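so ive been stuck on this for like two days lol. basically i have the seq below and the ligand is zinc ion, smiles is in there too. i just want the complex predicted, nothing fancy, no docking runs or whatever. if the output looks off dont worry ill sanity check it later, just need somthing to start from for the group meeting slides
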Amino acid sequence: MTRPHISLHPRCGACGDDFRLGQKIVAAIRKSRSVQVINAYTFPDYGASDDTAPDIDWYFCRKPSCSQCNDGAADAATIHVDCYNLFRLHCNNNDSLYRLWLTATWRRPWHGAPSLRLFPDVDASKTMQLAATACSLPQLTAVPAEILHMIGEYAQPSPLGRYRAIIDLAADLNSQEQSWPQSLPLSEIASWERGGHAVVNESLHPIVRITIDCWGLKRIERLVDNPPFAGKRSDTEVYIIEAQERLRDVTVQFQSGLGRLDVPKDSVDLQLWDTPTPPSLESLQNMPRITGTTQFASIDLRKANALTFFVANGSTLAVHGHTRRRSHPETTFDRISRQRQRHAAWIYVPLPSKDRITHFGIRAPHKFTRSPWAAADYSYLFRFELAGDVIVGPRFLGPTQDFIWPVKEQLLLIFNVAELAAISAMSAYPNESSEITPFARLSKAPFQEACFSSAPLEGIVLLQIYSDAETGLCRGILAEYGNGSQRALGECRIGVDPVCTYKSPACLCFTQVTRNRSGTSIELKGIKVSSSYQSEHKHGEVGWSCFPMRGTLQLWFTNEQSILEVIVDEAELMPS
Ligand SMILES: [Zn+2]
Ligand SMILES: [Zn+2]
Ligand SMILES: [Zn+2]
């Protein structure tokens, strides 16, 4: 007999932190009036934990779009073992287990909702105050709140942050009165806020906006019309904006100040946005027909100081928008399955404040045969005032199409996100027509799946060469120019890989090497790159070529291979 599935959520229902691979977890399921807590073993990369005992009644499943999870998997909470134990120690009401189950499962806005991975709106300074007490360092609390907050941000996620989250949750649930469950059709609800009562009315505005944060349903409100795009976006909330008519079968359950949608299977496909005023899907260029409940994320290109695209076999798995608050792309990379991480190249595109991006574009292969709703392959086009045209990503065989957007006060890069799945739809907004000279076509890629990057050598005042800690081979090069613009080649994994920095280099030197993929006879191409302040110099090894800072560097790469070339226009070499 097949065992019923318990879907493993990627986050702990109690502390709200992401599970890490191998962390010990429990699952809590409701059985009539009681809650049963079962050992769910360790959090797996994909599928089931290897150590699940065969005599367990359940199959703990972490497979996106698993049909058996979709078909009536238990409404289960998954929780760190240590969070569960700590909570039990601090919350000892008769019904504390039920309250924990309710809080944890209702973090999902409806049973079967996708994992939204919303950041908690944490008060990091509270964690630091706890650290001051725990470590007997009262002077910590004398530090200005702004700095405490910054330290606390660095300490997230941390065991201390998790500890505080559980203590707070236990205190909250201890102090709350448990109320009876109640259910209302969404069509009757005029407004509701978490912690309060639903306001019911008969004549209601036709548009419903539902706000969801890391605790689940937060607010229900009514709007006269679809709100016009206003550009605001959030890392902590997502929004559903729909005509009441489409949500007619949806009801809302309420209990103890919490709310949860009841969305009958196949009744409606919901779209979740990280902006409260999303553009209409029909207005987005290059958007395939969307089916199924879909979460859209956006990155404001004028607010990010860099982008990192994670690309494997031509597909973009994820994009990280670097901002002051979210400077580490690892937080996005960690959400890709281990299996895919192994093949993902990190394509870094700096957006320095001294340069201005004027146009952004997506180059997509024509999809003659492929289903439009499969993982989509893109390369990316950027036009900068100072750095000029930057083209990054894979080169496609056959015809391609460019979609270009001018970047004015704001441009949101919009794409779908789904747990453990690649991006399959990408666009940008707002649309504004602009006549521009087309971006260049790329030459043929020197090896399969290679991604392109390039940068002029002239005018470089700072060169940073990133290398692989294991092989010592160059992974990427970041160039900064006298006018403040920047260009990146290959994989610049800032803060991850060792880096060598050269100020005002006189030349760039490299040698192409080959090695075998470990345990196989497959030959991989790699490069060693160095730089020098002197144009006349020698290398300890044979095979090095030295280039003055003239011409254009072209680096073709995947996450395990690279080929570097210097392209010099013959005309440049002619004496003037
Ligand atoms: Zn936890
Ligand atoms: Zn499943
Ligand atoms: Zn040299």
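The chain has a mean pLDDT of 89. The chain is about 15% helix and 35% strand.
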